[in-house]
Amino acid sequence: MFFTVTAGQARNRGSQTETAASAPRLPVLSVVIVHKPARSTKAARNVHMRACPERRLLWTEQGLAQITDWLDPRDVDDLVFAEGRRLELAGVFNLRDVGGYPAVGGRAVRWRTLLRSDALHRIEPAGSAFLGELELSTILDLRTPMEAELAPSALDGLPARVAHISLLGGDMEALPLELDAIYRYVIDERGDTIGAAVRVLATADAFPALIHCSAGKDRTGIVVALILAVLGVPDEVIAADYGLSAGYLDSEHTPAIGQLQASTGLGDNLTRPLLSSPPALMLEVLARARAAGGSVDGYLLDHGLSPADLDRLRAALLD
């Protein structure tokens, strides 16, 4: 049985048989994802996700492994670069929609329901108007108080509820400057804060929602990755989505770098390695959360969420 997952929907396409001439489909776990620089989005083709008919896909770690084994790695690129993924609004560099990604059970993440972004202080009026038309219910700001003071959001006039939860605490200068060390610190030491951030989105009428920090890469990337894992999106797709940020924050885009240096207060400490987003690092984050909690669900349950909270996330975000 094949499931056909397009950018906005998932549907059962019925039984098909691959011909001998077709290229072999390898498990996603055997493919190395190479980050590609930012490029224009392209229309999404049908993405084929093959499920072994004798196995059920369940809301369990086992079910997630089954869907991962059968997602064609050749289609991961089409998923992350799907038309409508990046929202190119003046004043922001890394605003994206996580809709369209396949999830367990032949479902897909709902479009225009969860957005991720860099800082919003320079978004122009037309961009604010566009986001206003999406009728955002929640804006989750993961920056430190200093960052929010240096670069106050230009969306404060929207009727959305704004939640400020500093994922790193109050002192960014005290953090290590190695990206992997920062991520280990966040998973190991900031779990309760991660739980509080995700819980903001597990309330009634929380969506559509936008999550952002300064770059829209690290703090936003970790929180979004954990949410997508709860939804049953394959790890390799989550990692590839995370990997998009480096292209949009490439050092050649000097306005983005200057904006980040000013808005974070890090200045020259914001080095090129800190602007990278290697997909393998996000795979390590997911593995670390699972090692701590037995599963991503378990990690979040250990840090303040309830099973009902996770069910509400799935109900709100999946088609």
Structure explained in plain terms:
With 319 residues, the chain is an alpha/beta fold. It has a single domain, classed as Protein tyrosine phosphatase superfamily (Protein-Tyrosine Phosphatase, Chain A), CATH 3.90.190.10. Helices cover 38% and strands 12% of the residues. The protein contains twelve helices and ten strands. It has helices at residues 61-70, 76-80, 125-133, 145-150, 179-189, 191-200, 219-231, 235-248, 254-264, 279-293, 296-302, 307-317, and strands at residues 2-6, 9-14, 47-50, 96-97, 102-103, 107-108, 114-117, 138-141, 161-164, 209-212. The strands form three sheets. Strands 4-7-10-8-9 form a five-stranded mixed sheet, with helices on one face. Strands 2-1-3 form a three-stranded antiparallel sheet. A two-stranded antiparallel sheet has the order 5-6. Helix 4 (145-150) links the parallel strand 8 and strand 9 (161-164). Helix 7 (219-231) runs antiparallel to helix 8. The chain is globular. The protein starts with a strand and ends with a helix.
Structural class by helix and strand composition: alpha/beta
Number of helices: 12
Radius of gyration: 19 Å
Let me know the largest β-sheet.
5 strands, mixed
For the record, the count of structural domains works out to 1
Under CATH, the topology can be stated as Protein-Tyrosine Phosphatase, Chain A
The CATH class designation is Alpha Beta
If classified by CATH, what would the architecture be? Alpha-Beta Complex
The pLDDT mean sits at 77
